[in-house]
Design brief:
Blueprint (H helix, E strand, L loop, with lengths): L2 H31 L6 H26 L1
């Protein structure tokens, strides 16, 4: 797998996971606590973890098929 494909997958996946995590924590805080705050720490951690994991899994899957 080329580094450019991995970097593109990392940034796209990371951005999607970051936005979803921010939205979920905001909705949770609105419904349970009544405040509209977001939890940046966990959202960024999830984005980094899934941003690395999903493109890596995709690369391993493509390597197995070839």
């Amino acid at each position: 797998m080329q580094i450019k494909e991995f970097a593109t997958g990392f940034f796209i996946t990371g951005l999607i996971v970051l936005l979803v995590s921010l939205g979920v924590t905001w909705l949770y805080d609105m419904m349970v606590h009544g405040t509209g705050s977001v939890e940046w720490g966990s959202a960024i951690r999830f984005a980094i973890i899934f941003g690395i994991s999903f493109p890596l899994l995709r690369a391993l899957e493509n390597k197995k098929k070839a």
